Write a sequence for this structure.
């Protein structure tokens, strides 16, 4: 298997890195470096390799078996993610939505376990260090996914920042609309929305049955997000965006027919499916969600919290250690704020100073445009410092865009 495919396979496990569009293999190395730099426990201690068996395999046979595992993982990613598959040249995938539902979780669990077991069955110590590191990286991804399923992260598919109400309206922004076929592919995906929504509801019902309910506060604003997706006037729908301008090279009759079909699919299939899920959330799911906040209140409790710590901090620190670190940081920052209060000769105590910062217009951008410009200016200043910190930088540029209004919590 080529190094480029290996890199793609690894990057597909890290959506934030894959979104940057860097070289797949360099992305693979970037992931490794991030883990080594940020974590006091490096990949070696986090994901130990099994010792070579007594009848140690030859280097070539182990390399071949490992390459087959990489290939299987990559093919699985392409099969289960039509968007990823389309991005890498499979035009037929543009006509499909991903599967959803409880069966997909069972499928993922099975394949990830098989891949993990396959790697551990190999005597990887016969390989050069660089190839062992690649194997460790895939193990790290697989173990994170298996651990996530074990603690139940898949049972909370909807909140203010994720869910079908967020990503389905983004479908059109991930596609190019130049030819009739592009619009046909989009309509095909829209027709599969009811099936996809049914799978999400199935997962939510499983979560209810198992008592795996999130804090109600995490769903505040979700119903409004669904409402933005279910506009009664089809031509105002977010899903109708690709049909607001006829592309060159298409006849008026062809265009009118496509627009009519889009209106029918949106009004008869997309909107009813999303409205049905929104109704279920409002009447059945959200009323059951808990008033408590902590992840410890999930049935998997501390295991769930530990998984989140590992995913979000890339360390082996315990919850207590991170809490103590947080307390020290709060004390350090407050001390610096006290110095600033003294320096600016503010007339009032700490609480009054914080209230002043919150309520004074001078500390806010006057418009959303100015706020966006401010963020972009920060990025420009950061860009100037990056060469001081990193030897190699991604060639592809990046940008800062406003969160669409319908997604904002």
């Amino acid at each position: 298997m080529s190094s480029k495919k290996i890199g793609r396979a690894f990057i597909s496990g890290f959506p934030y890195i894959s979104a940057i569009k860097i070289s797949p293999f360099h992305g693979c190395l970037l992931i490794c470096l991030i883990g080594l730099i940020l974590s006091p426990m490096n990949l070696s201690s986090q994901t130990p390799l099994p010792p070579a068996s007594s009848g140690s395999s030859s280097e070539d046979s182990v390399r071949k078996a490992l390459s087959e595992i990489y290939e299987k993982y990559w093919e699985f990613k392409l099969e289960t993610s039509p968007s990823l598959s389309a991005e890498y040249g499979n035009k037929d995938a543009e006509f499909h939505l991903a599967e959803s539902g409880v069966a997909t979780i069972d499928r993922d669990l099975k394949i990830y376990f098989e891949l993990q077991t396959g790697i551990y069955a190999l005597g990887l110590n016969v390989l050069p260090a660089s190839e062992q590191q690649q194997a460790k990286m895939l193990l790290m991804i697989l173990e994170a996914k298996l651990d996530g399923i074990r603690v139940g992260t898949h049972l909370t598919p909807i909140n203010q920042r994720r869910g079908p109400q967020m990503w389905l309206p983004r479908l059109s922004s991930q596609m190019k609309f130049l030819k009739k076929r592009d619009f046909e592919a989009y309509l095909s995906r829209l027709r599969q929305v009811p099936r996809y929504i049914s799978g999400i509801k199935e997962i939510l019902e499983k979560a209810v049955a198992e008592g795996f309910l999130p804090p109600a506060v995490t769903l505040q604003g979700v119903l409004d997000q669904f409402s933005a997706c279910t506009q009664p006037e089809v031509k105002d729908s977010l899903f109708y965006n690709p049909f607001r301008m006829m592309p060159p090279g298409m006849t008026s009759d062809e265009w009118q027919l496509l627009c009519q079909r889009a209106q029918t699919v949106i009004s008869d299939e997309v909107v009813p499916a999303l409205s049905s899920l929104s109704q279920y959330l409002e009447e059945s799911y959200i009323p059951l969600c808990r008033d408590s906040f902590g992840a410890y209140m999930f049935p998997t409790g501390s295991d769930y919290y530990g998984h989140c710590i590992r995913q979000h901090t890339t360390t082996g620190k315990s919850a207590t250690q991170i809490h103590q670190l947080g307390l020290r940081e709060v004390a350090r920052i407050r001390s610096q704020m006290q110095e600033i209060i003294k320096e600016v000769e503010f007339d009032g105590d700490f609480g009054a100073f914080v209230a002043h910062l919150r309520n004074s217009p001078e500390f806010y951008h006057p418009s959303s445009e100015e706020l966006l410009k401010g963020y972009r200016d920060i990025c420009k200043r950061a860009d100037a410092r990056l060469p001081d910190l990193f030897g190699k930088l991604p060639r592809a540029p990046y940008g800062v865009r406003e969160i669409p209004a319908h997604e904002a919590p």
Remarks:
- The chain is about 60% helix and 0% strand.
- The radius of gyration is 25 Å.
